[in-house]
Amino acid sequence: MKRTLLLAGLVASILYGPIVSAQGTSTQWTPVERSMTALLNEGWRVISHSQSQAVDSHDNIFTAFSFVLMKESKVMICLFDRPTPDNATSRCRSLN
């Protein structure tokens, strides 16, 4: 019986409580003026990555890479557009 009342209270608070939306919530997106190589050498580590195909304004398809880096409780995203073996320029942004 106690479980049923607790569950009913939880459902009521979810259904009738204030609705909080993540839409329009400000998020830090601060440019980092160090290369991804420097960040990795400073102890940041890659915790996730992805590769995708993107299209530019001239309908050219190119490869893009993104990496999520973490150090202690700090998180950063680094992006590479059109990297070549000897020329990969990263754009990194801090999230917190």
Describe this structure in words.
The chain has 96 residues and is α+β, with helices and mostly antiparallel strands. It has a domain at 28-94. Helices cover 22% and strands 40% of the residues. The protein is built from two helices and five strands, in the order αβαββββ. Strands 1-5-4-3-2 form a five-stranded antiparallel beta sheet. Strand 2 (45-55) and strand 3 form a beta hairpin. The chain is flat. The model has no long low-confidence stretch (mean pLDDT 82).
Per-chain topology:
Layout: H1 2-16, E1 30-32, H2 36-41, E2 45-55, E3 61-71, E4 74-81, E5 90-94
Antiparallel strand pairs: 1-5, 2-3, 3-4, 4-5
- Biggest β-sheet, characterized? 5 strands, antiparallel
Q: Which percent range fits the helix content? A: 10-25%
Total number of beta strands: 5
First and last CA, distance:
44 Å
Give the count of helical stretches: 2
Mean of the pLDDT scores?
A: 82
Q: Structural class from helices and strands?
A: alpha+beta
The spatial strand order of the largest sheet comes to 1-5-4-3-2
The sequence of SSEs as H and E is: HEHEEEE
Computed over alpha carbons, the radius of gyration is: 21 Å
Question: Which residues sit in consecutive blocks of at least 5 with pLDDT less than 50?
Answer: none
Shape, principal axes of CA atoms: flat
User: What fraction of residues sit in β-strands?
Assistant: 35-45%
